[in-house]
Design goal:
Elements: E1 5-6, E2 13-14, E3 20-22, E4 29-31, H1 70-82, H2 96-109, H3 122-134, H4 146-153, H5 158-170, H6 174-191, H7 200-212, H8 221-240, H9 243-250
Antiparallel strand pairs: 1-2, 3-4
Helix pairs in contact: 1-3, 1-6, 2-3, 4-5, 4-8, 6-9, 7-8
Keywords: Metal-binding, Zinc
GO molecular function: GTPase activator activity; metal ion binding
Organism: Erythrocercus mccallii
């Protein structure tokens, strides 16, 4: 190994100068010690099935609705399976190294993701989800619609604000809209768990910068300072919309959201 890369079986980095095994057909790379755990059959993996290391949300979305990336579905499913009794869900950080390793492993896997049940600490799964969303080339609400979301959240009248937010959500690219809806329903379930102690205000503080971000890839220091409280405001108001609104986007093909 000249350039250190992770083993496709265990996920640990194969260090410089170490001996590794690489399949000449499917390019699978693994430690020599992991050979016995390797599938006996393989097939060439076309490059267009692999996920990019970074991209816009649509680059990761499936081809059939609802257009929610498998990585997002699998993380959310795992969190809801065993994380809704954890205090500080999404606020308590997972081990940074494990978050990075698992995010890399999931991105390399493309559509066929390894099971997250082997991740002992559920906060690591939460960290992977947040890190994936933060790593997109543009935030979920998109650069072009960012000002419209901020303006809608500033409307003082509740009914007018809700109408404006619904309108802006409907203008999102389909993958962004479906994924936002899926995440909003998930965060509402987290907010309703008494054990998590993560109400809408806490969740909006965590997810404001992640989901709303800024109106450009390189915001000025002034824009960062001005945007931060408004990002939280947007997420808080989005979470105040009725669940039925969000379900309308993701429950048309609910069976597609069950991870394989």
């Amino acid at each position: 190994v000249i350039r250190p890369e992770p083993c496709h079986i265990c996920g640990s980095r194969i260090r410089f100068g170490k001996t590794a095994i690489k399949c000449c057909q499917c390019q699978l790379l693994l430690h020599t010690k992991c050979r016995e755990q390797c599938p006996s059959l393989c097939s060439p993996r076309p490059h267009h099935h692999a996920w990019p290391r970074e991209g816009v949300l649509a680059d990761f979305a499936p081809s059939t609705p609802p257009l929610v990336p498998t990585l997002v579905v699998q993380c959310v499913t795992e969190v809801e399976t065993r994380g809704l009794t954890e205090t500080g869900l999404y606020r308590v950080p997972g081990t940074e190294q494990l978050v990075r390793e698992w995010k890399r492993k999931l991105l390399r896997a493309g559509g066929a993701l390894p099971a997250l049940s082997s991740v002992t600490d559920i906060h690591v799964v939460c960290g992977v989800l947040k890190d994936f969303l933060r790593g997109l080339k543009e935030p979920l609400v998109t650069f072009s619609l960012h000002p419209a979301f901020l303006r809608a959240a500033d409307i003082p009248d509740d009914a007018a604000r809700d109408t404006a937010l619904r309108h802006v959500v409907s203008k999102l690219p389909p993958a962004n809209r479906d994924t936002l809806a899926f995440l909003m329903l998930h965060l509402l379930r987290v907010s309703h768990s008494p054990d998590c102690k993560m109400d809408v205000l806490n969740l909006s503080r965590v997810f404001g910068p992640t989901l709303v971000g800024h109106s450009s890839a390189n915001p000025t220091p002034l824009a960062i300072m001005e945007d931060t409280p408004r990002q939280c405001k947007v997420v808080a108001h989005l979470l105040s919309l009725p669940p039925s609104f969000w379900r309308g986007f993701v429950e048309t093909e609910q069976e597609n959201l069950v991870p394989v």
